[in-house]
Amino acid sequence: MWTYNKLLQYPINIKCTDPKLAKVIISQYGGPDGELAASLRYLSQRFGMPDENAKAILNDIGTEELAHLEMVGTLVNQLTKDATIEQIEEAGLAPYYTDHGLDVYPSSAAGVPFTSAYIACKGDPVANLQEDLAAEQKARATYEKLIDLCRDNADVVDVLRYLRSREIVHFQRFGEALNGVHDRLAQKRYYMNNKKMNHMNNMSNMSGSNLVDFNCTENECND
User: Fold this and answer.
1) What is the pLDDT of residue 6?
2) Predicted confidence (pLDDT) per residue in 154-166, tens digit
3) For 19-186, CATH number?
4) Cβ neighbours of residue 53 under 8 Å, at least 6 residues apart?
5) Mapping DSSP to helix (H, G, I), strand (E, B) and coil, where does residue 107 land?
């Protein structure tokens, strides 16, 4: 399905080791609003979309998020690969180092390991796309916080700004997908006519239930 080009989507060349920055940036690798969660969420949700355009958008963005996962992992790797034990301890990464050394492990900045609980798949295309819109905004906000924290390292900030800009584009594309899904669902809209609603209300009164689940097509409602 995928063709993998062995180069990063955006070049990364970090000149200075800085495990303190790596500790916070790793949240966009395996944290609640990170790239791993985003890619798995979108690539899973695509199957339930009611139209091909929405499926294609989720597939495209989910694939790009995998590229971003690679970029964030590269950032963390380059910021830690030459770190001394003293630098690791000073950065508060001693517990991480104990379990993972200097490997890139999916976790949040607080040290919470990645969990599939971060992935929202609700079985409803509108709910899923609303979740995706919110997810892109949360990722954008996270990148803006990271830019603040990394302000003294121009090489890192440059990459983070690029990643932030892509979250904005993704938000716009999910908006387009949501509009398309609304239009698609509107073609199958159901209405309640008075005759059938009265019949169901009578049945509900007899059974003691307040539930009404009787619908008709738009043409039938005009009978």
Assistant:
1) 87
2) 999 999 999 999 9
3) 1.20.1260.10
4) 177, 180
5) strand
Given this model, what pLDDT does residue 113 score? 97
Q: Is 162 helix (H, G, I), strand (E, B) or coil?
A: helix
pLDDT digits (tens, 9 = 90+) for 96-123: 999 999 999 999 999 999 999 999 999 9
Question: Using CA atoms, how far apart are residues 41 and 37, in angstroms rounded to an integer?
Answer: 6
**C-beta separation of 116 from 40 below 8 A:** yes
Specify the residue for token string 């097509």: 217
Distances from the Cα of 156 to the Cα of 14, 17, 146, 189, angstroms: 7, 11, 9, 50
Distance of CA 155 to the CA centre of its chain: 25
Query: Count of CB atoms within 10 A of residue 76's CB?
Result: 24
Q: Domain extents for the chain?
A: 19-186, 190-223
Q: What are phi and psi of 191, to 5 degrees?
A: -130, 160
pTM of the model: 0.82
